[in-house]
Amino acid sequence: MPHHLFKCSECIPERKQHAVIKGLGETLADALPLGYLNTIPGSISERGCAYCGAKHVIGTPMKDVIHLSHGPVGCTYDTWQTKRYISDNDNFQIKYTFATDMKEKHIVFGAEKLLKQTMLDAFKAMPHIKRMTIYQTCASALIGDDISAIAQEVMDELPEVDVFVCNSPGFGGPSQSGGHHKINIAWINQKVGTFEPEIKSDYVINYVGEYNIQGDQPIMDDYFKRMGIQVLSTFTGNGSYDDLRGMHRAHLNVLECARSAEYICNELRKRYGIPRLDIDGFGFGPLGASLRKVALFFGIEDRAKAIIDEETARWKPELDWYAARLEGKKVCLWPGGSKLWHWAHVIHDEMKLNVVSVYTKFGHQGDMEKGISRCEQGALAIDDPNELEGLEAMDMLKPDIIFTGKRPGEVAKKIRVPYLNAHAYHNGPWKGWEGWVRFARDIYNAIYSPIHELAKLDISKDEIPADKGFVTRRMLSDVNLPDEIRNSATMRPYSGDYDCLPNYMGKTYPYMEKTPAPSTAA
């Protein structure tokens, strides 16, 4: 497999080892780019830091906690509200963020007094919240503030509160993945085993590596409950601080995002003997196989089968409708972490999309191994690309759409390539059977968007046809819809002149005219 040196990176020849093109019959040993290394100076990486990986990815989805950054206000502001980690307590952790707001004088004279006063002020301002996490930043780590000692002082003064300290400064790893590791280990060292949960079932799990992006967690939680399984804790989306202190009482750790949370699963296995089972909530096939694995562990396979049969029968016709219209479309799969390999094969198998590129910002070699093995021949695999490399890759590959984060996504829009936010979703949740159809709908809407078609025109010289981009109307008029969809109770008569797409929940299709039922009259 040839390594690929971008023209924009010819002045940084070391970058050649970080990109490869998957060739015919080549092994992963031939295909693997270098990854999870310190950023090469001059390459202008878009990675997040270790502090970001700890606070933004792992910590702040925890719902009933004051999340306090001990450092300059810019650190906490940069990790606030940029992902849709919703919660069922009125989104407390999204609405509020807390920082000590260190200044130059605190760097010179120390900031421990500032930290203690800020902690006391925060608990006073939010009297209904009795739990806090303190995140160390580069500034407080460099001057050596003893955060743990200050946290203990506050807990001694306020016996009803509990404080967790995460020492994960930005320089604590090559990327945000280093922060994932640090907060995983810190949590099990400091808090697991300090609370005894109530056990309500013979089948008890920790759901690990789930961050409840736009409501993913309740969907998966519902499947487990229908199987009679108690979800003791969710690490950490919509998760409760005290529930996560009781992780040691679970019978099984069910792991979703292996990149961010395998560390705590491995430690729970070592220290408490709790087995680890990796699952995948995306795609009909992988999700069904995942529920079967969990059920097999507990000996309740029939319960999983009933859910799989019911959900597949309900949603498969709608997925097929989208797959027929997405077949052959090219996608750059640039999500940053584990979605690289969660999605690479299943979007091809179930939505008929062709993956022409994969990349990771903070993934390890194992992420690249799985991602490259699951994508098509000729795909370009890149570790930690910068903006210029991303632009060059899109110009070379001519994708119909990319799945990525907001920064590279906004760059793609500048060159008229639609994107979906792979980190925070566009109109999620995307997990579960219905969620996977919703994902297909978002892809369809993006690719066939009239706005994107119009954006490709140069208004200074191109003729602007009145129906430019309205492919959906013509597509629907030219095909015979499957009876399962056309006769579905979710259809309603089309009215109006505009091209309407499925609504948020995917349960009504106002642009489709329902076929009248056959007459039974003699």
TrEMBL record:
<comment type="similarity">
    <text>Belongs to the NifD/NifK/NifE/NifN family.</text>
</comment>
<dbReference type="GO" id="GO:0046872">
    <property type="term" value="F:metal ion binding"/>
</dbReference>
<protein>
    <recommendedName>
        <fullName>Nitrogenase protein alpha chain</fullName>
        <ecNumber>1.18.6.1</ecNumber>
    </recommendedName>
</protein>
<dbReference type="InterPro" id="IPR010143">
    <property type="entry name" value="Nase_comp1_asu"/>
</dbReference>
<dbReference type="InterPro" id="IPR000510">
    <property type="entry name" value="Nase/OxRdtase_comp1"/>
</dbReference>
<dbReference type="GO" id="GO:0051536">
    <property type="term" value="F:iron-sulfur cluster binding"/>
</dbReference>
<dbReference type="InterPro" id="IPR005974">
    <property type="entry name" value="Nase_asu"/>
</dbReference>
<dbReference type="InterPro" id="IPR011290">
    <property type="entry name" value="Nase_Fe-Fe_asu"/>
</dbReference>
<keyword id="KW-0547">Nucleotide-binding</keyword>
<keyword id="KW-0408">Iron</keyword>
<feature type="domain" description="Nitrogenase/oxidoreductase component 1">
    <location>
        <begin position="49"/>
        <end position="447"/>
    </location>
</feature>
<dbReference type="InterPro" id="IPR000318">
    <property type="entry name" value="Nase_comp1_CS"/>
</dbReference>
<keyword id="KW-0560">Oxidoreductase</keyword>
<keyword id="KW-0479">Metal-binding</keyword>
<comment type="subunit">
    <text>Hexamer of two alpha, two beta, and two delta chains.</text>
</comment>
<keyword id="KW-0535">Nitrogen fixation</keyword>
<keyword id="KW-0067">ATP-binding</keyword>
<keyword id="KW-0411">Iron-sulfur</keyword>
<dbReference type="Pfam" id="PF00148">
    <property type="entry name" value="Oxidored_nitro"/>
</dbReference>
<dbReference type="GO" id="GO:0016163">
    <property type="term" value="F:nitrogenase activity"/>
</dbReference>
<dbReference type="GO" id="GO:0005524">
    <property type="term" value="F:ATP binding"/>
</dbReference>
